[in-house]
Amino acid sequence: MRLTVNGTEHTLDDLEPEMPLLWALRDVLGVHGPKYGCGIAECGACTVHIDGQAVRSCQVPVGDVWGDVTTIEGLGTPGAPHPVQAAWIEAQVAQCGYCQSGQIMQAASLLAEVPEPSDAEIDDAMSGNLCRCGTYPRIRAAVKAAARAMREGT
Amino acid sequence: MGRAKTIARRTFLVGSVAVAGGVAFGVWRMRTPYDNPLMADLPEGAAALTPYVRITGDAITLITPRADVGQGAVSVQAMLIAEELDVDPAQVATEFGPPDRAYWNTALSDEAVPFRSTDQGWLAESARDVMDAPMKFLGMQITGGSTTVPDGYEKLRRAGAVARETLKAAAARLHGQPVDRLGTEGSAVILPDGTRLRYESLAAEAARTEPVTDVVLRDPSTWRLVGQPVQRVDIVAKSTGRQAYGIDEEQPGMLHAAIRLNPAQGAALRGLDASEAKAMRGVRKIVEVPGGVGVIADNTWRAMQAAQAIKCDWAPAPYPAGMEGHWQALAESFTPERQDSRLRDEGDVEAALDGAADIDVEYRAPYLAHAPLEPLNTTVRYSPERTDIWTGTQVPRFVQGNAAAITGQDADDVHVHVRVAGGSFGHRLEDAVVRHATHLAMAVPGQPVKLTYSREEDMGHEFPRQIAMARGRGRVSGGRVVAYDLGIAMPSIIASQMGRQAIPTPGPDLQIVAGAWDQPFAIPEYRVTGYRAPALAPVSSWRSVGASTNGFFHDCLLDELIHAAGADPLEERLRLCSHAPSRAVLEAVGEMSGWGGALNAGQGRGIGFCLSFGVPCAQVVEVRETGDGLRVARVWVAADVGRIVDPVNFEAQMQGGVVWGLGHAMHGALTYADGAVEQQNFDTFRSMRLRECPEIVVRGLETAGKIRGIGEPPVPPAAPALANAIFAATGQRLREMPFDREVAFVG
Questions:
Q1: For B634, nearest residue in chain A (alpha carbons)
Q2: Residue B348 sits in the same domain as residue B436
Q3: Helical axes A83-91 vs A100-113, angle rounded to 10°
Q4: Tens digit of pLDDT for each residue in B358-379?
Q5: Chain A contact present for B458, CB below 8 A
Q6: What pLDDT, in 10s, does the model give residues B466-486?
């Protein structure tokens, strides 16, 4: 099995193809940004991109991965954050932060598809990502700020 | 006398301890200082200036002993030290420090005495003083009770000031300059000619310098960090996937583990058949632990798969198998024999209500999961000489002692490395996961084992929020509330929780009535009685603890009486309120929401109020009928914490507390069937989702005197404000949580 994660190709010949991508990333490749929260696609903490689209990595068997995987680590860096990450930093969204990797990956996927989402579209796209700390007001504000920044190319 | 006593309580003794290669400064309130914990690993030439500051030749480290579970504890503790030390919190290291009695929490005693938090008289303050002694004795290094800021507010600034002045004295001696001509800025002492001497370069000299303990804290008007909107120290890491949590721990040669515990929490494993699991790929060991069995494997997924394949014979639950039994136990607890406290008893309630009650109702609140999004986990490496534990915990000393009891080692040989936690809400006040991980690690000496609970095992063994029931009566007359009688029955949270730490808890459990008996209202006939139900499912502290249920009971009963009296919910609360800061927060939400203004058809507004953890908090919730269900549209919330140390975090905690309180009131419940928790994951244990989140407008007041924490106080008023709003919109009184039993909500 070959798996490209954040631009690096890995060969995973010794893995069960049914192992969820999440656990291959975390325990085999040591990529810890995607988080385990529920294992049943109810919380969104494990969200990564496959070919730019947000997916729940706990539900994708590693043998079925159909494209390049991007995790929060590959979206941007502390020195060069993605506009969504920059908006999250500016709005100081995170409390415990555990869900935020997934929230950010979900928001980045939304804005790639819908550059000017309505409030309802934000609600629809983001409600599968659970935040137990209750950062929702700031998530809404950060998504809108990121959308503005991306439209303006800043 | 009361005033003098108050001042004495808040004065800290400052001392220092000379050790080989360095010196440590301590800011203590106790008579005999404990050994300074930072001495143990002090490298040659390093100066540990206080238990909260360590400066070596190449690093400045701020020690922030209260756990960060998302509430911003690291940031706020660092900010308080840095305000006096003149460092940029983002430019220096922080660490949680080792478990040690020296980090006992001085603010916990404020909540453990039978005096209302509004009572700052001599007797109440003396009692808090006396209660400090056992807190010190037990070394209660606990993060909880919204105490991080009140506990550290002066200690941490004083630590920073002592460090700064001692560094200046060291620089003065080295460079032959009078101290009063030296300044400090950006981690450096500034000489009169502008030369900057980095603190690190002064570490060795500071170690030889008599500590300057006669420091005057800076006037708040000069603060650069405290009270200002600053960036949290962890915000970049948490926005870029770089923040490591306990679950991300990596140690060389680490194995991974999963666990199966008796679904009836606390009951035994009678037998097992692990033959299938043993043969599964990657499985190294199957290890029995108290109440269950663990699997050690080469990765987490394989361990979890194998744990599921074990056939177990479980003993039955030590508590009622189904909910009828739990509710019945509460219903049968309203008896004189089970009376635990009656700390509020004014007038003659019996006479006033004898056959004359206008309201006579019962309220219920269910068990609830804490369910922080990071599942419980712990990494342990055991060897006969030494055990290392990496975990996100609010109770590092309990962890250390309990692990030592299992390994048979001295506590000094158990090294606890506290990790950042992905939420807690009280969950990490329990340490069963550490005990289980220790048992597993002992099966593979020398090899680190990371135990990760599956979400199902975590939620199924929650030590949930207490179940509770209340019975309320009251009378109104002439448009006023004149008699109020509330009885509350619940199992003792504190006895359950401390019982697991083998700590006795004599006397009444104030949490049974917290958020009810201590409310700042003057009602002529006013009584609040606590009834201690028998122990049921094991329970523990859940964000706002007793007040999480009692705030709902107390305020809803008051609201029902106000409506029965035909009075305005805000005006009558204000008329009854006997505490100026509480009046102020009520007035604030009235003004913020434009209370009393015209509403559209199908709209309704409710007020909720609760004084908890010393903080008065009021909320107005607005709901709207949509045809498909109720929408929670807007919330206005005000609280008075005395002084807002970190305004960004204050707003975040207020909003988060409202979301927490509303979301669980709308949807949350853990129920038992056949002794097992029925909700094992987020598909059935529901809380607020983004689409349901209302607009939340926050205001902080700073008039109440004592400085207080804000993690918990916004929670208790949310549920009653919502119930009262639903009544205003629909005429339907909701007396049992979750409310979605009876009404539908839309996002």
A1: A137
A2: no
A3: 130
A4: 999 999 999 999 999 999 999 9
A5: no
A6: 999 999 999 999 999 999 999
Does one domain contain both B530 and B645? yes
Mean pLDDT over each residue of chain A, to the nearest integer: 97
**Domain end (from B239, B270, B285):** B239
Beta-bridge partners for B521: B577
Exposed/middle/buried for residue A22 (C-beta within 10 Å: 0-12, 13-18, 19+): buried
Strand B47-50 vs strand B53-55: parallel, antiparallel, or unpaired?
antiparallel
d(CA B56, CA B46): 4
CA dist B467 to B343, B533, B535, Å? Answer: 21, 10, 11
How far from chain centre, in Å, is Cα B315? 33
Q: Does A63 touch chain B (CB under 8 A)?
A: no
Domain count of the fold of chain B: 3
B626 touches chain A (CB under 8 A): no
CATH no. for A75-151:
1.10.150.120
DSSP annotation of A28? I
Residue B239: closest CA among chain A residues belongs to which residue? A85
Type of residue at B326: H
CATH number of the domain residue B103 falls in: 3.30.365.10
What is this structure's pTM? 0.93
- Whether the CB of A137 is below 8 Å from some CB of chain B: the reply is yes
Task: Give dist(CA B554, CA B529) in Å, integer.
Answer: 12
Name the nearest CA neighbour of B729 among B539, B595, B599, B577: B599
Q: How far apart are the first and last CA of chain B?
A: 55
Mean pLDDT in residue range B11-32: 43
Domain range for B115 is 2-239
Q: Report the distance separating Cα B244 and Cα B420, nearest Å.
A: 7
Can you tell me the distance from the alpha carbon of A27 to that of A19, in angstroms, rounded to the nearest whole number?
11
Give yes or no for residue B277 having a pLDDT over 70: yes
- Tell me: do B434 and B546 sit in the same domain: no
Cα torsion B314, B318, B322, B326 to 10°: value is -160
Residues B269 and B154 in one domain: no
Same domain (yes/no): B355, B380: no
Q: Looking at the structure, do residues B484 and B441 belong to the same domain, yes or no?
A: no
B421 touches chain A (CB under 8 A): yes
Model ipTM? 0.98
Domain boundary among B400, B428, B452: B452
CATH fold of the domain at A2-73: Ubiquitin-like (UB roll) (3.10.20)
Q: Does A69 touch chain B (CB under 8 A)?
A: no
- Among B510, B488, B529, B519, residue whose Cα is nearest residue B363: B488
3-state secondary structure B543-608: CCCCHHHHHHHHHHHHHHHHHHHCCCHHHHHHHHECCHHHHHHHHHHHHHHCCCCCCCCCEEEEEE
Which of A36, A40, A88 has the CB atom closest to B239's CB atom? Answer: A88
pLDDT band at B110 (very low <50, low <70, confident <90, very high): low
**Torsion angle, alpha carbons of B170, B175, B179, B182, to 10:** -100
Does residue B746 sit within a domain?
A: no
Among B71, B148, B239, most A C-beta atoms within 10 A, so best to mutate, is: B239
Report the length, in residues, of chain B: 747
Per residue in B148-189, pLDDT (tens digit) is 788 789 888 988 998 899 999 999 999 999 999 999 999 999
B747 inside domain: no
Portion 352-411 of B in contact with A at CB < 8 A? 371-375
**Tens-place pLDDT, residues B683-730:** 999 999 999 999 999 999 999 888 999 999 999 999 999 999 999 999
Same domain, B606 and B697: yes
Structural domain boundaries in chain A: 2-73, 75-151
Task: Return the SS3 of B407.
Answer: helix
Task: With respect to residue B459, please indicate whether it lies within any of the assigned structural domains.
Answer: no
The token duo for B62 is: 């701020």
